[in-house]
Amino acid sequence: MSGSVSSTVPAITSSLSQLQALNGLFAIYKKQGPTSADVLNVLKEALLKEAGVKNPNPRKRKNQSLKMGHGGTLDSAASGVLVVGVGNGTKMLSTMLTGSKKYVAVGEFGKATDTLDATGSVTLEKGFEHITRLDVEEKLKAFTGDIMQVPPLYSALKKDGQRLSVLLKKGHKVDAKPARPVTVYSLTLQEFKPPLFTLDIECGGGFYVRSLVDDLGKALSSCAHVKELVRTKQGPFTLEEHALHEEQWTLEHVLRSLKTCSEGDPEEDHPKPKKVVT
């Protein structure tokens, strides 16, 4: 019938009831600077305001008008894909934590920092002129596959209910967490312009790019830290195809990009670890 609307396309109405009826996963773009939690709160506030809620408090924990969470913290200095769960979709976020992720990381040889990235204070400077492209490619082989990795002190990991990074900033002494098993599916050197180098990484859950770059610097008889970090893929969500930018944080765009709880398993694309080919 002419002028009819397909029943498979939800009507776009800015109402709180429709917003609260959402159940599933979608991806947003996190810019450099704010924490992942801050970005999530901005998203919630934008959606609630659009739905007509006056003076929304996105940080409210109890009796929330909109149930929403993210699946995997991105460091403040990092940007890229942040997967968001809404409604019953928040129950699926654990698969995002353990699933496959892709990153592009720019590292810098010659300087180590306390946070292992460019936001920290320089703790060590060492020469890097002896490092060649072949040296880096050869060392990367040792960091591919199933490996053991010590997480950074400045991280979202917790001790006695508080994040290690918060405890450190408060002046508390924090012991390093023990090394734990992580998986690197692929690891390649994309660009080498000393002191800068660019890595393309695909890894599993619990992996820290900052620890990789720090360990790589040590393995090459120097030191290094992460200068820039972008997450380009998380589970089935990619930066180019799925991540909603801030101007797209509307109910209409969320409805269009939402993967509902019944739309398959986000874990379907786990690749097998492979060694770097030089």
UniProtKB/TrEMBL annotation:
Subcellular localization, as worded in the UniProt entry: Cytoplasm, Cytosol; Nucleus
The biological processes this protein is annotated with in GO are: mRNA processing; mRNA pseudouridine synthesis; tRNA modification
One Gene Ontology term of the molecular function aspect:
tRNA pseudouridine(55) synthase activity
Q: Where are the transmembrane segments?
A: none
According to its UniProt record, what is one Pfam family this protein matches? TruB_N
| UniProt keyword annotation of Nucleus present | yes
What Enzyme Commission number does this protein have? 5.4.99.25
Q: Which UniProt keywords apply?
A: Acetylation, Cytoplasm, Isomerase, mRNA processing, Nucleus, tRNA processing
Q: Which reaction does it catalyse?
A: uridine(55) in tRNA = pseudouridine(55) in tRNA; a uridine in tRNA = a pseudouridine in tRNA; a uridine in mRNA = a pseudouridine in mRNA; uridine in 5S rRNA = pseudouridine in 5S rRNA
InterPro entries referenced in this protein's UniProt entry, alphabetically: PsdUridine_synth_cat_dom_sf, PsdUridine_synth_N, tRNA_psdUridine_synth_TruB, TruB_C
SUPFAM superfamilies according to UniProt = Pseudouridine synthase
Q: Where's the tRNA pseudouridylate synthase B C-terminal domain?
A: 210-258
| Gene3D superfamilies to which the protein is assigned, alphabetical | Pseudouridine synthase
- Main localization (coarse): cytoplasm
Q: Where is the Pseudouridine synthase II N-terminal domain?
A: 61-209
| GO CC annotation terms, alphabetical | cytosol; nucleus
Q: Which NCBIfam families match?
A: TruB
Report the sequence similarity comment from the record: Belongs to the pseudouridine synthase TruB family.
Entry-linked HAMAP family: TruB_bact
Task performed by this protein:
Pseudouridine synthase that catalyzes pseudouridylation of mRNAs and tRNAs. Mediates pseudouridylation of mRNAs with the consensus sequence 5'-GUUCNANNC-3', harboring a stem-loop structure. Constitutes the major pseudouridine synthase acting on mRNAs. Also catalyzes pseudouridylation of some tRNAs, including synthesis of pseudouridine(55) from uracil-55, in the psi GC loop of a subset of tRNAs. Promotes the processing of pri-let-7 microRNAs (pri-miRNAs) independently of its RNA pseudouridylate synthase activity.
Q: Quote the protein name from its UniProt record.
A: Pseudouridylate synthase TRUB1
User: What is the scientific name of the source organism?
Assistant: Pundamilia nyererei
Gene name per UniProt: trub1
